[in-house]
Amino acid sequence: MDRLASARPKRLDTRVPTTNRVVAPLTRNPSGNELERAVDEPDWVPEGVDTSIPSVARTYDYLLGGAHNLAVDRRMADEMLRVLPGARHLVRLNRSFLRRAVTHLVRRGVRQFLDIGSGIPTAGNVHEVARAHAPDCRVVYVDKDPVAVAHSRMLLAGDERTDVVLADLRDPEDVLGRPEVKGLLDLDQPVALLLLLVVHFLTDEEDPVGLLGRYRDRLAPGSFLVVSHATDDRRAETMRRAADTVRRARSRDNLVYRDRAEVTALFTGYELEEPGVVGCALWRPDGAGSMADTPEDNTQVYVGVGRKPAPGERGT
């Protein structure tokens, strides 16, 4: 890591404009609906974004209580909450898992993080959690949503140990070959690859196991894979209705649920850290908002952390 300069010029992907515009104020409308904006199309949305189509990243932001979302995203989220009332709690459980997993990896010596499908940064994101334990940690955030990327760049401007890339999980060679990634992360040293609530947007035809294998093969021994993935192992009918909600909303992403064995297969070539692939709330709970009120909520999302062994080490 000594060869990487701590101060470097920021490289920006010119396909997505940066912005320093003020976010439109939030109000409640007369009927009391949460987080209605003062305008229908706020000026913080980059040019070219179709504001009639909901975004998973912005919907997730809304469910976490964030401000960077549109009316179309809130409508999809509210419909999701009607069929899956625990959705807001599930995304908070996932955020708690992120905190525990990143803390664990820093304690294991990891100082480089690649967060793909990172969404819109909110309090307690990867760089904040990691640097609470090791200030020298470096983080690259990757998302395909232009709004998420624009706001990430605005919020992280001037932070020389983070960068943000507009790219798609489905193209590992493009992601890992980006100047922002290669300029900030030393891929010859261990990197933690974070894929939180994103792999379930890959269809079976897109071969998620093979796709993740292409990332694995480019990462150094000692690197880690962190995954959280929705499942319909419990509440199958409720989860089916939730997936239908996403489809009806014309979102460009469709949910594909997988069972525990299928999520475990994503860690092919990695050694799973204890306790293996388990329900989100059951991965090393620490009592700080990590457990749900019901067993079903604890296991509605499968999670795991795996380490890529060095040649000669025992593999999976």
Automatic annotation (TrEMBL):
CDD domains: AdoMet_MTases. This is S-adenosyl methyltransferase. It comes from Saccharothrix coeruleofusca. The lineage of its organism: Bacteria, Bacillati, Actinomycetota, Actinomycetes, Pseudonocardiales.
